[in-house]
Amino acid sequence: MSTIFHFFNDIALKREHFISLEKLKDFPFDARLLHVDTAAADTESGQFPDRILRIDPDGRGGELIEFKDSRSYSIASFNSTIPAGQKDLRDLFADQGTRRLQLLAAGEDTDRFYLRDVYYLIRGRKRTAGTVKVCLVHGSFFETIPIDQLIRGAFIQALTEALNQPPDDDLIAQLTLLFSKQQFFSRTRSVANASVKLRFRIMTEAKREGNVFDPQQYPDIHDNTLSFIVPYHEKARALHALRDLIASNTSPPLTQLTLVHRLNGPFFALQLPFIQPTPT
Fold first, then answer.
1. Cβ-proximal residues to 230 (8 Å cutoff; 6+ apart), any chain
2. In this structure, are strands 64-70 and 115-126 parallel, antiparallel, or unpaired?
3. How many CB atoms lie within 10 A of CB 275?
């Protein structure tokens, strides 16, 4: 079986690599947990996600994992897709996209197991201080309102600025229809007599309330630690799935935390310190 719990167990056992590796894509992930083709993909191509876990016949596993790496304690921008707790493969891999073909070739039924949980493997580094924070965090940490509501609200703000007044209800209704889903406007468009094609892309940035690295917002996420953050209702499942990891990490200990998200309620976290190399 390949689930996000197996994935966290793997990176927890190898967590010291996060200190020295220049790029997250070079981490020695257990290839048995991943789809080979997606693991070999160039993670700098901008295609979401960076990794896809294998799925078993019962529909367990199959989580989508996106990397976010930063040289500060700010979270790198979400350039390809708006962060969410779940993504629909039918929207992500429309038509016969490369990633969908890879999953089909691996024997997965993408029409049956199409709704996948999303996790973000994020790393922040302060080179001057020599500290690092790494979190494997469920996408719902960043999705505090529905994506369609977020997109619609942003476009209404832009229209209000252009009109110098709030748009009327009819215009809002039209905007809701056109801009409620990213795939409606993010495709490349070819206009007659134009020598270039046009594509609108959304860049999403975490606010302070959504920045798990911010020590004022989330002081329990310490320097030089690896944390696994899931919705609070997943606490029992996480503790059961990771019981061997918890039992074996008594020195240094694996800490259990409750993170109070300022906009999205409580999340459960497991945190492990990095073992710093002994000076020679």
1. 138, 238, 267, 268, 269
2. parallel
3. 11
- The alpha carbon torsion through 198, 43, 146, 104 (nearest 10 deg) reads 90
**Residues 241-257 pLDDT 10s:** 999 988 888 777 889 99
Contact (Cβ atoms closer than 8 angstroms) between residue 150 and residue 96: no
CB 55 within 8 A of CB 38: no
What pTM, to 2 d.p., does this model score?
Answer: 0.86
* Residues recorded for the chain: 280
Q: Residue 4, SS3?
A: helix
Residue 61, beta-bridge partner list: 55
Burial-class residue 82 by CB neighbours within 10 Å (0-12, 13-18, 19+). middle
Would the pLDDT of 279 be above 50?
no
Angle at 226 between CA 15 and CA 212, to 5 degrees: 150
In tens, the pLDDT along 113-167 reads: 788 999 999 999 988 778 999 999 999 999 988 877 887 788 778 778 887 888 7
Distance CA(139)–CA(210), nearest Å, equals: 11
pLDDT tens across 58-92, in order?
Answer: 778 889 999 999 999 999 888 768 899 999 887 77
Q: What average pLDDT does the structure give for the chain?
A: 83
Give, rounded to a whole angstrom, the gap between the first and last alpha carbons of the chain: 41
**Cα distance between residue 262 and residue 216, in whole Å:** 11
- The three state secondary structure string of 143-174 is CCCCHHHHHHHHHHHHHHHHHCCCCCHHHHHH
